[in-house]
Amino acid sequence: MPPIDPVELSRALIRCPSVTPDDAGALDVLQATLEGIGFTCTRLPFSQPGTPDVDNLYARIGSTSPNFCFAGHTDVVPVGDRAAWTSDPFGGDIRDHVLYGRGATDMKCAVACFAAAAAGFLAERGSDFGGSISFLITGDEEGSALNGTLKVLDWMEKAGEIIDSCLVGEPTNPEAVGDMIKIGRRGSLIGYLTVTGTQGHSAYPELADNPIPRLINMLGFLIDTPLDTGTAHFPASSVAVTTIDVGNGATNVIPAKATAVFNIRFNDLHTGESLEAMLRERFDAVGGRFTLKVAISGEAFLTPPGPLSEVISNAVQAATGKTPELSTTGGTSDARFIKDYCPVAEFGLINQTAHKVDENAKVDDIEVLAAIYRDILERTFPRKC
Questions:
Q1: How far is C-alpha 100 from the geometric centre of its chain's CA atoms?
Q2: Beta-sheet pairing, 257-266 with 187-196
Q3: Cβ-contact 328, 293 below 8 angstroms
Q4: How confident is the model over 6-15, as pLDDT tens digits?
Q5: Are 190 and 261 in contact (CB under 8 A)?
Q6: Could you tell me where the DSSP H helices lie in 179-289?
Q7: Which site from 52, 96, 119, 225 is most exposed, i.e. has the minimal number of CB atoms within 10 Å?
Q8: 30-86 tens-digit pLDDT
Q9: What one-character-per-residue DSSP string does 76-109 give?
C-alpha cells in the first residue's frame, strides 16, 4: 500500500481554490488518494432551494464495528485582500519550513494528515484490523452548513452507516500542537431585537413614544445581569451586542423604531429554546412593544471525558510530551451535528492564522499531527494477542 506524504497532499489540496461552496477539485484529489489505499468512496451532492449546491464525500474501509470516523471539510473562506498575501494563497508554497495557503490551518492539512495516518496504519495492519475507518468530508462547513455534514449524517443513517466515535480535525491548539482537545462547544444564539414606539417631534417628547431608551434598557438588562456563572467544563455564557441601528437621519425627530443584534455564546446550562424564553422574560420586564427573532446556529454540547478523549490525549502525550487541556472554548464546528450520532472530539493544528492573510502551518507540525492521528488509530484498534 503506497505511503502518503501529508505535506505534499496538503499542498495539493491547498492548490484547489475551494472557497465555499466551490469544490474546485479538492474532493477529487482526496477521493483519488483514498481509493488508492483501498477506501470505497461515495460522493454526496446536496442542495435545497435558496442555497448553493454542495458536494461532500463519505469514504470507508472495513465492514465491521467499531467504525472510527475522521471528519472535516475541504472548503475554505475567501482570501480577502490578495495583494496583502506574501505568496499565492492557493499556491501551496513552502518557505522556511512553513506551508502557506488558504486552508492550511483550517483545515486542509488536517484532512491530509487523516489520509496519511490511514495509509500508514493500513500498510502495516492490512484491511483486517478489527473494525472500520471512515471519512466524512464536507464542502459546506465555512458556509451555511445546510448541505454538508448535517445531510451526510442523515444519508448515513438511512444507509445503515453507523459511526462509533469521531475525530474532527479543526485547529484546536492556541500556541503549539498538543495544547488542547475540544470535547464540546458552546451554543450560539443570534438575537434580532426591534423596539417599536411612536414617531414625533423632539421638542414635544410627551407626544411621542421614544423606543431608544427602552432598547438601551433591554440591552443593559441583558448585559448587566449574567446569564450564569459557568459549569465544570464551560465558561460563563457571554453576550456581545454586534449592532445598534435607528436609521434616523434627522436630529429633531424621535424615531418610530430602534433595532439591535446580539450574539450569545451559551453553555450547557441552556438550550436555544430556554434561552429565548429567558430573553423574552427579561425584555417583558422593561415593557413596551418589541419583537424578538432568534437564530440558533448550534446547541451547546459536551462529550464527557472518557474513552475517546483518553485515546486522543494519550496519543498527543506520546508524540509531544504534553497533556492537552480538555476544552469547550471557541466557536461552532460541525461537531455540533455529529454529537447526535456518537462521541466526538476535535484536535488539529494551531489556530493562530486561521482565516487570516498568510494562513500557514509549520511542516513539522503537519508531520507530528499525522503521527498523532496514526497513533489514535493504533490505540482505537489494538492488536489482538
A1: 21
A2: antiparallel
A3: no
A4: 999 999 999 9
A5: yes
A6: 211-224, 272-286
A7: 96
A8: 999 999 999 999 999 999 998 999 999 999 999 999 999 999 999 999 999 999 999
A9: B-----GGGSSS-TTT--EETTEEESTTIIIIIH
Cα distances from 139 to residues 72, 75, 116, 151, in angstroms, run 9, 5, 20, 12
CA gap 327, 180 in Å, rounded: 7
Q: What is the pLDDT of residues 293-330, one digit of tens each?
A: 999 988 999 999 999 999 999 999 999 999 999 999 98
Take residue 118 and report the three cell numbers written for it.
490511514
Residue with cell 432598547: 215
At residue 57's C-alpha, the angle toward residues 51 and 59, to 5°, is 160
The dihedral built from the CA positions of residue 383, 320, 68 and 13, taken in this order, carries a sign that is negative
pTM over 0.85: yes
198: its cell numbers: 411612536
DSSP string, 276-307: HHHHHHHHHHH-SEEEEEEEEEE--EE--SSH
Secondary structure of residue 343 in the 3-state scheme: coil
Residues that are catalytic? 75, 141
Q: Which helix (H) or strand (E) holds 241?
A: strand 238-245
